[in-house]
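Project outcomes to date are best conveyed with an example. Our students and postdoctoral researchers have been running inverse folding experiments weekly, and each run begins with a structure described purely in tokens. The record below, which covers 142 residues, was selected by the lab manager from last quarter's runs and is presented without edits.
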């Protein structure tokens, strides 16, 4: 039987794996699957926040509702673009039953929104000293 990740790092690892899957699916032109995996990415990162801050991870329907998970972790979705807030609010697991994306869904906007949420979560998941070191490495070209 499968078991949910136990640590924030485990949740983050799963999130980053699903993000890699999403990008590969996007490059293959499989946009519904890409968007579905981007939702998984966001859900796993929200759950990582819960675990990192010692909060209970919601179960059942709320366990797939990203704004509810983030609130359960003790955070408010502030400082995010309207597109990102819409991405988080509109995500629904029923997407897995769709053959194509709705006409009003633009995959590039969804990818950008997911990336913004990843960055937002990372800010709260990584200690400030780690973030500084990562920025320094990027500046150095490493």
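After processing, the design step wrote out the following sequence:
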């Amino acid at each position: 039987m499968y078991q949910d990740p136990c640590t924030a790092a485990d949740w983050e690892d799963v999130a980053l794996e699903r993000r890699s899957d999403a990008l590969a699916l996007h490059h293959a032109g499989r946009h519904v699957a890409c968007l579905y995996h981007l939702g998984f990415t966001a859900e796993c990162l929200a759950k990582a926040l819960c675990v990192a801050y010692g909060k209970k991870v919601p179960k059942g329907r709320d366990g797939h509702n990203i704004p509810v998970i983030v609130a359960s972790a003790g955070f408010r979705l502030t400082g995010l673009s309207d597109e990102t807030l819409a991405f988080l609010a509109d995500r629904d697991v029923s997407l897995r039953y769709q053959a194509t994306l709705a006409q009003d869904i633009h995959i590039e906007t969804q990818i950008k929104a997911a990336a913004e949420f990843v960055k937002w979560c990372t800010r709260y998941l990584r200690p400030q000293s780690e973030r500084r070191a990562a920025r320094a490495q990027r500046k150095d070209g490493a």
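The mean pLDDT is 90. Residues 31-52 form the longest helix (22 residues). The training component of this project remains on track.
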